[in-house]
Structure formats: structure tokens, C-alpha cells
Amino acid sequence: MLKQVKSDTVEELKATLAKAASIVVADFRGLKVEEVNGLRREIRKAACTYRVVKNTLFKRAIAGTKMEGLAKLFKGPTAIAFSFVDPIAPAKLADKFAGSQDKFKIKGGYVDGKVLDVAGVKNLATMKGKDELRAELLALFIAPAQSFVALLAAAPMNFMFLLGARERAQGQG
After folding, report:
1. Residues 156 and 116 in one domain
2. Would you state the pLDDT for residue 1?
3. Are 98 and 39 in contact (CB under 8 A)?
4. pLDDT below 50 — which residues of the chain?
5. pTM for the whole structure
6. One domain for residues 79 and 107
7. Which residues contact 79 (CB under 8 A, 6 or more apart)?
8. DSSP character for 1?
9. Which domain holds residue 103?
10. Are 34 and 94 found together in one domain?
């Protein structure tokens, strides 16, 4: 690789990683191309990014940043998955894929200024994502209104049941 190309790649990586909400570092040694492409598709669907770049370029890109603790993870074939929006999405996808593929090994990660080990990434993967939390919050906001509407509808509905029962009683009697 030409020196200028390497320098440009490092600068681009620095800018990209600085905006990332979270990063998952993994070893993909032994995976088939179809398997990696399947992982890339899933990652793309979740609005995340999957990249493989030379370890030395990754190390240069994170040098002097809070992510510098990740440098020890860049040994052997290494890939990163990251997201600009949802910090949990890359961890969930990597953990799910690692569960189905023995050859895909999570090495660690980074979120909110902290370097994570494998257990930390797995804990992050078990957390609820933004969409799940938004749905729960919306359900909390809607619940009182739904209860109030059900309460208002109960009296007329009960009156209709009473009339129906009276009608059936008159028809049989």
C-alpha cells in the first residue's frame, strides 16, 4: 500500500471511529465468504458498518484517543462492527452471529468512552435497544388513555349486555 493511501485511510478511520456510538472487535478467521457476506447484510440492515482493515492502520487511527485500549485486540484477522446511531446494535448482531458460527470470535469492544472485554460486549448485547426502549416508553404513555377509554366504554357495553340478556329471557319465557 502506498504511503499516501495508508495516511488517507488512517485519517478516514480516525474521523469515522470518532463518530461511532460503539465498536465491536472480532476475529473472523476461518469464515467462508458467504458467511461473512451474510453477516455484512445483517449489519447493513441494522444501520451498522462492518470493516476489515490492516491492524497497523487501526492502531494508528486509535492512537491518542480514548479507544487506544483496543490496540491490544488487533492481532490476527480482525474486523470491526460499529454504529453511529444505536450503541447496542453491533453488539447484538455480533453476539448473535458468534452464537451461530464457532469461527467468529468476539475480542472486545468500545462504548461510551470505555473499552469492553468479551463479557462486556455480551452484557451490552443483552440490553434493550433504542427501538425497544422507545416502544416501552410509548406503551407507558398510552396506557392511562387506554384505561380511561375502556372505563368510559364499560357502562354502555354493560347496559347492552343487560338488554341482550333481558331480550333472551323474554324470548324464552
Report:
1. no
2. 62
3. no
4. none
5. 0.72
6. yes
7. 25, 26, 27, 28, 50, 51, 52
8. -
9. 3-127
10. yes
pLDDT of amino acid 45: 92
Q: Are strands 105-111 and 114-116 parallel, antiparallel or unpaired?
A: antiparallel
Query: Three cell numbers at 82?
Result: 460499529
Are the C-beta atoms of 125 and 95 separated by less than 8 Å? yes
Answer yes or no: do 135 and 123 share one domain. no
C-alpha cell of residue 10: 488512517
The string of pLDDT tens digits covering residues 13-50 is 888 888 888 999 999 888 889 989 999 999 999 889 99
Q: With b meaning 16 or more CB within 10 Å and e meaning fewer, what string describes 81-114?
A: bbbeebbbbbbbbbbebbeebeebbbbbbbbeee
- Picking from 127, 150, 165, the residue at the C-terminal end of a domain is 127
For residues 88 and 41, state if they share a domain.
yes
